[in-house]
Amino acid sequence: MPSVKKESSTPRQIRSRRELAGWTKNVVQAPVDAPMNADGVSKKRFDSEETAARAAIDHVSAEAMVKLLSPGNIAILEAIRLNKPVSVRALAMLTGRREPSLSRTLNRLAEIGIVSLEDGPRQTRIPVLIAHRVYLEIDLPSAKSL
């Protein structure tokens, strides 16, 4: 059954990296009962509307994210960053991965906003690394829910 990509209903914030870092530092240093704590604040933060739109999925499980960011796939991201390949085929040659398998991996990475696949000449797709850092937030069950 095909999956349906839906727009996230979770509120999000758009801030510069410097603003996000400063805000995070203030929240971490503030006492728990201070009005600065993060209760009720958006858990999704992006550096621009463009990045937020590319990552407009509602939920990716922690397990799926860990599998997607396997050592082999991290090597693919590193190859994109270092070599800036001009096509998926060029990236396949750099990494030794089969092109169909690599395309599936790149499409999934594009769905979650880590890479983009831009249109190139003669119907090629150019993989571009757009995220340089990923934060995984996991809600653990509370004692009340056990």
Features:
single chain; 146 residues; alpha+beta; Arc Repressor Mutant, subunit A; two-stranded parallel ribbon; two-stranded antiparallel sheet; disordered N terminus
Structure characterization notes:
The protein has 146 residues and is of the alpha+beta class. The protein has two domains: 12-56, no CATH class; 62-129, Winged helix-like DNA-binding domain superfamily/Winged helix DNA-binding domain (Arc Repressor Mutant, subunit A, Orthogonal Bundle), CATH 1.10.10.10. Helices cover 41% and strands 11% of the residues. It has helices at 17-29, 49-54, 62-68, 71-83, 88-95, 99-111; strands spanning 12-14, 44-46, 115-119, 125-129. It is globular and about 55 Å long. Residues 1-10 have low confidence and may be disordered.
What is the oligomer described by this structure? single chain
Q: Which fold name is given in CATH as the topology of the largest domain?
A: Arc Repressor Mutant, subunit A
The named CATH superfamily of the largest domain: Winged helix-like DNA-binding domain superfamily/Winged helix DNA-binding domain
Biggest β-sheet: strands ordered side by side in the sheet? 1-2
Helical stretch tally: 6
The helix-and-strand class reads alpha+beta
Largest sheet: 2 strands, parallel
Structural Rg = 18 Å
- The structural domain count equals 2
- CATH class of the largest domain equals Mainly Alpha
Helical content class = 40-55%
Order of helices and strands: EHEHHHHHEE
Number of beta strands = 4
β content, as a range? 5-15%
Q: How confident overall, as mean pLDDT?
A: 76
Which residues sit in consecutive blocks of at least 5 with pLDDT less than 50? 1-10
